[in-house]
Amino acid sequence: MADERTLVLVKPDGVQRSLVGDIIGRFETRGLHLVGLKLLHMDRELAGRHYTEHREKPFYESLVAFITAGPVVAMVWEGPGVVALVRAMMGATDPAASAPGTIRGDHALTIGANVVHGSDSVPRAAEEIGLFFSAAELVDWRSDVARWLQG
Ligand code: DAT
Ligand code: MG
Fold this sequence. Notes:
By secondary structure, the chain is of the alpha+beta class. The chain has helices at 12-16, 20-30, 44-50, 60-67, 82-90, 103-107, 122-132, 145-150, and strands spanning 3-10, 33-40, 72-80, 116-118.
């Protein structure tokens, strides 16, 4: 399967609840490749661009208020089929239906505080990555584990 890239956010509830390390650890140990990472506080404008597909939904205002309520960790992960893989690792949107073993199934209770975002398609991933990262912030590197184990 061809390598893809996806945008992941640890939402403000995940940052506040000290879940950043757990979430990054899951993607690392799965074997995905990290190419971008930052901590930022989203403003309403960025939230509007990020959640543009939900603009007409009844929960839109609470969604924007929530995602701008504190810092998020934004990351870009790369790997074969990574868009769908990350969605599977996140679990269902509503944590009440998220399987145990998924991020939401292990760490979340309600749809309004579901800890993590992952892009839902390859084209949308490219757009979302562009909202959060400049080209220069996406780092081109390859794993070279043996060298780092030997010191
Ligand atoms: P996902 O985050 O799994 O891609 P989504 O794109 O459908 O889900 O919705 C974006 C976020 O909006 C979701 O993570 C939580 C919130 N949300 C979705 N449906 C909701 C609803 N019915 N009531 C309240 N919040 C909702
Ligand atoms: Mg979505």
